[in-house]
Structure formats: C-alpha cells, structure tokens
Write a structure and sequence with these properties.
With about 675 residues, the chain is mainly beta.
Length: about 675
C-alpha cells in the first residue's frame, strides 16, 4: 500500500485533526462520520491568548498578544496574571455527548522566574467561549472542575496533567457543539511572590504556540449500573481459540455451562452504584487521578453533607501525597450534638474511605477520638499524628465496608481528647467481599460462597492438564476494593477499576468481553502472567480487530507481564505503565502510549496500527517486534521524537522500514521515529 492510501486510512481510523485559527498554512482535515466506540484525537493550536494582567494586553480584536504570555506573575504587579487560551471550533470535532478520555494543554515555556510555580487550570463555563478583547481572562466564568498543575522549572515544552474533567464539563453543556470555541484559564495556586513562567504565543512563534489535545470516544461510559443476580452474564462457552495466536491458552476441554450462574452477594437494592467524594472543609478539587472531590456542604434531606462543626485550612505542604488540597482543609467538631456526616443512599453494601492528616497538633497524644459508621466503632482512640507519623503528613487511607438498611449512611466522629476531625471522605457502592475465585482441581464446581454453577458438568468435561482455566462468573461494573482474579471472566458490560484500587490478575487469567465494552483502569492493574500461562484480554468468539475495548490505563502504577491481547481496539496508556512480554495481535492498534511507559520484550503484530505515541510522551521501548501491521507499524502523533532503535520490523531494508512509519517525513508537524539501527532478526521470547 502506498503512502497516500496509508494516510487516507489513518484519517478514517484515528481522526487526527489539526487546526490553526487565522492561518492558511495548514489545511483542516474533515472529520469523517464515526461509529459508536470509535476513538478520535483532536490536536488544536491556540487561536487567541492573553495573560489578563491589564486591559492593554488584550486591547485589539485582531491581536493575539505578540509580546508573550506571562503565566501566574504573582508579585510582579498589583494583580495576579490570569492566563487565558481560546481554542477555536472544538465543538465541531468533540460535540456533546462524547466521552472525553484525556485532555492535555501543552505550553512551550520561554522564561522561568522563581523556584516553583503552581497553577489551577479551569475551563470557561460557556457554550462557546469568546476571545479576550472584550471579556478578558480574569472576568471569565469558570467551570466547577479544575486541575492543579505543578510544572517543573525547565524551559521548553511541558504538558499539563489530564484535564479530562474540565473538558468533559464543557462538552456536557447542552448548548455546546457545532463550531463552538473552548477556553482554558490558568490561575495562580500559591501565595508566594515572584513565581511565574512565560509561554510562547502564536504571534511570537507559530511552531511554539499552545496546543490542546483531546482524546474522545463516541460511546458514553455506562459503568454505573450494577447487574442484579438475574442480570449476571450467562457463561455459555469459553472463547473459540481457532483464530487466536498460538500463545493464547487453549480451551479444548472446557465444560459447556448451560445455566446462568447465581450470584449470592450482589446487593440487589442498589440499581445504580452510588459514589460521593467530599473534600471536608474545602473547595471542589480534581485529584491527580482525575477524580472530582466535591466542596463541603451541610446535610440536607435526600443528599449528603456535614452535621455541625467548623473548618480549618492550611497552606502547608503535605507529605506522603500528591493531592495536598485533600489534606490541607478539615472539618472538626467541638462538642454538642453528635457530629459527623450523613449520606442519603440506596440500601446496600458500601465502602467508606476516610482521609486524615494532623494539621494542628505537633505531638502524639494531643488529639484522640473515635469514629463510628452506622453505629459501629471502626476507629477506637484514633491519634492521627501517630497514624500518619507526624504533622502535615497524609495518613494511610482508612477503608471500611458497611451495610446500610435505613437509607442513611451515618459517619460519626466522637470526641475524646481534643476535637475530632476528618480531611476527606469517599463513599462508594461495593460488592460484599467473597472468597477469591480459584480454579478448582475437582471436575465439579462446589457450593461455596463464590458464584456457583447450578448444574454439574459431565465427567468428560474435566479440565485437562493443558491448564485451561475454569469458567468464573464475573460481576460487571466498578471495582471499588482491591481484587484478585483468576480463571475465566466473561464481561457483559464496561469494566472500571476505581482510583486507588488494584486489580490483580493471576497467571492464566482470561478476561473476555461478550460485546463492544471497554476497561477503564483509574486505579491500577497488575497482571502476573507467565510464559506458559499468560494473561489473556480478548473478545468472546472474536474474529477481527476492534470488537472490544480499549483497555484504558489512567491511574499510575500499572504493570503487566506476559499478557496477550486480541480482537480489541488496543491498550491505551494515559499514565506511566510497565509492560513486559506483551503480545498484542489483531487489534485496531497494538499499543497507544500517551505517557512515559517502559515497554520491554513486546510483540505488536497483525494489528491495524502497531504502535502510536502521542501527547508528547517519552516512552522507553526495548527489544520489540513490530511487524505485519496492516496500515502502519508506528505512528508518531506528537512533535517530540521517539527512540525506536533495536526494533525488528520484519525487514532490514531501510526504505521498507520508512514505509511502515508515519512521522515527520510524511508530515512536518510530527516528531520522528528514531529507528536506526534496526534489529537484524526477530526476537524470540
């Protein structure tokens, strides 16, 4: 296939759009019609920018501040610098109700003053955001959601944390769409003076202008529905493996299960999993895992909130966390009526997470109190200073399971020595814990507390020595507590792993989706496959790329060893991840990297696209086979170059290898794939 036809296919599959407003240098690519579940990527350059420190910075309807953009110049003048960026016609590409998977603002910094900067990134709360000529940045109406960005002190390109919650709030506005513009506003997040950074503007250097990148999905997540026992997916067959690469576990002797598994512990009264996050004593905050914590509020019937109490706030740095704002405010109680929080919830089983840091007392034994949930003491004589190991240190999360039967979840803080307090609270609907399902050595499933199969397979269906995993019924939806899986799990809905939660996959685990569902890992996934028994992610009875997924990695700390992925959209990593012995075959893309991943001994084969790198990621890729992918072996969808030395491309011919790569040789806006020298032969694992 020649380069022109490659490019045509790429524009249809990945929808990469670059828009520079007011410039005729680059053409706008038309977005093709997309089917549900299609992933799209928008990368657009700022069409207007202004620092908002004075009206004369934005005093011309045609001027885009050619003098450079001052970001957060606290102390340089009598008012803070509020940096504003407008991006034109975003609504034409990412309209309501698309789901925003990731969003990043990338700036090219020309000058740094001071030793540290900290910014809050808001959106403009408008259906379409006007430029800053008549409505400059400091006067714009802000979104509720914001993300804290603590940039380093280097000059050059730097990217924000994931702004998904900010962009999603704008996209969800009923009037957002068509050719509507979008604005981002950067506010100072600290009190120290003379801490600021200057970013290039379009007028100063078009190649260094601010860039907003958004990855969106045409399907809206529906992980908020927990199936009742009657709706549990029926496990009728294990996957047919005839079209799966030979490293996939075989299924030749797996029994056919003809009855729907019964689930004994799913709380049937909770039809929609409840979740609330509260920043006690503080304002709304989006944490480093992109979870939104609501501002504190008093309790009202039918909702949630505090009962009594007062607040205390500090600007001191908090150790042992990257989410300081969750611990810099607290609610405390000085006596009177029983103090605490109330949450109106459907009856069922819940996980309650309490966050603490001692902000006031400077020694152990100065503040001691109890915590009760639903009338039961869960923390007796709690000394936060001792639990955390000192003052202004985040203590380990305290997590408790509780059953609610009266529609109100009560959390009470009981005074002992000094005032009881709390910094943040999370309440999530959960599944009552059961024994971890383990493949049984006997031919018949036993009647235990784990989900069971009501009919006994015939003796001829006994698992053979090939290691075929026993079918294990799986409840779909959100996983809110650390969980270990093994055996075969058939998923009939989207899967989500909550922030702070780990899903561990034992060797030989098979996760097969029965439909076009995806996995959203906001916490982390740890896959412990082996050469003989890899972990398999696939589509039940899959036959072609794109039939499930993607597997989104959003939270930090995921690692996967000896993992096979087939028939999906692919693995998309928006957070650092370690991958060793990944076999990605027959997917839309084998591996999509938007973060600094460490990829070793990996094969990306027979996918539509083998590897894609974007959002200015700097992955380390070693000992990889990238071969026989149908459109491109590698796509560099960012301005930064990507080292790909030592890769086996299925050939040693340089011209042929170049034809397998989409980079700056094809489009000067892209970085280069630094592939030379290539491997001389295929790696064998």
């Amino acid at each position: 296939m020649d380069r022109l036809s490659h490019r045509a296919v790429l524009s249809m599959m990945l929808v990469l759009i670059t828009v520079i407003a007011g410039s005729s240098l680059l053409a706008t690519l038309r977005t093709p019609a997309v089917a549900p579940g299609t992933i799209g990527i928008l990368s657009t350059v700022s069409s207007w920018q202004c620092d908002g420190s004075a009206r004369d910075s934005c005093n011309s309807p045609t001027q885009k501040e050619p003098d450079g953009l001052g970001v957060n110049r606290q102390g340089q003048s009598t008012v803070d610098y509020v940096a504003g960026y407008q991006f034109a016609a975003v609504g034409s590409t990412v309209p309501n109700p698309y789901y925003v998977y990731s969003a990043t603002l990338t700036l090219n910094i020309s000058n740094v003053v001071g030793t540290s900067s900290s910014w809050r990134v808001y959106g403009g709360a408008y259906d379409t955001c006007t430029n800053f000529y008549s409505d400059w940045p400091a006067t714009k109406t802000l979104t509720t959601a914001y993300v804290v960005w603590n940039p380093d002190n280097s000059t050059g390109w730097k990217s924000s944390p994931n702004l998904r919650t900010v962009i999603q709030e704008i996209v969800d506005r009923p009037g957002f769409g068509s050719s509507d513009n979008l604005c981002l506003l950067l506010y100072d997040n600290q009190t120290s003076n003379n801490q600021y950074q200057d970013a290039y503007t379009y007028d100063a250097d078009p190649a260094k202008a601010a860039v907003l990148s958004i990855e969106w999905d045409t399907s809206t997540p529906t992980v908020t529905s927990t199936p009742s026992p009657s709706g549990t997916p029926t496990t009728t067959h294990t996957p047919t493996e005839t079209g799966t690469p030979t490293r996939t576990p075989t299924s030749t002797a797996t029994p056919t299960v003809t009855h729907t598994p019964t689930v004994t512990h799913t709380p049937t009264a909770t039809q929609t999993p409840y979740q609330a996050r509260v920043n006690a004593g503080g304002a709304a905050y989006t944490d480093t895992s992109d979870a939104l914590w609501a501002a504190d509020k008093p309790f009202s019937a039918g909702s949630w909130g505090y009962v009594g109490g007062a607040t205390y706030v500090t600007d001191a740095a908090i150790a042992n966390t990257d989410d300081d704002p969750l611990y810099q405010s607290e609610r405390y109680w000085t006596g009177g009526a029983t103090p605490g929080y109330r949450f109106t919830v459907p009856n069922g089983y819940y996980a309650v997470t309490l966050k603490f840091a001692e902000l006031y007392r400077a020694a152990a034994g100065k503040r001691v109190f109890d915590v009760r949930i639903e009338g039961n003491t869960v923390l007796d004589d709690l000394d936060v200073f001792t639990l955390a190991g000192g003052k202004n240190i985040a203590a380990p999360d305290q997590v408790f399971g509780v059953t609610v039967s009266d529609g109100i979840l009560d959390i009470d803080f009981i005074s002992g020595l000094d005032n009881p307090k709390v910094n943040a609270i999370k309440v999530s609907a959960a599944t009552m814990p059961t024994a971890t399902p383990t493949p049984s050595a006997t031919p018949s499933p036993t009647a235990t507390q784990t989900p069971t199969v009501t009919s006994t397979p015939a003796a001829t269906a006994t698992a053979t020595a090939t290691g075929t995993p026993t079918p294990t019924p799986t409840i779909c939806g959100r996983i809110d507590a650390n969980t270990t899986w093994n055996g075969t799990h058939t998923l009939g809905c989207h899967l989500s792993v909550a922030s702070g939660v780990t899903l561990t996959l034992d060797a030989g685990t098979v996760i097969q989706f029965s439909g076009p569902y995806y996995a959203d890992i906001q916490g982390r996934v740890v896959a412990n496959g082996t050469s003989a028994n890899p972990v398999l992610w696939t589509r039940q009875s899959g036959s072609a790329p794109g039939q499930w997924g993607p597997l989104y990695i959003i939270g930090n700390g995921s690692s996967m060893t000896y993992v096979t992925m087939t028939y999906g959209v692919g693995l998309s990593a928006g957070a650092p991840v370690t991958l060793t012995h990944l076999w990605a075959m027959t997917n839309t893309y084998g591996l999509d990297l938007a973060a600094n991943a460490n990829v070793m001994s990996t094969t990306l084969q027979a996918n539509t696209y083998g590897l894609q790198v974007r959002l200015n990621a700097a992955p380390v890729i070693s000992y990889a086979n990238i071969l026989t992918n149908t459109t491109y072996g590698a796509v560099i969808a960012q301005p930064r170059d990507v080292p790909l030395t030592g890769v086996w491309w299925g050939t040693t011919d340089g011209a042929t290898i170049e034809g397998l790569i989409l980079d700056d040789i094809d489009d000067i806006r892209r970085g280069r794939a630094l592939w030379h020298p290539a491997a001389a032969a295929e790696y064998a694992w």
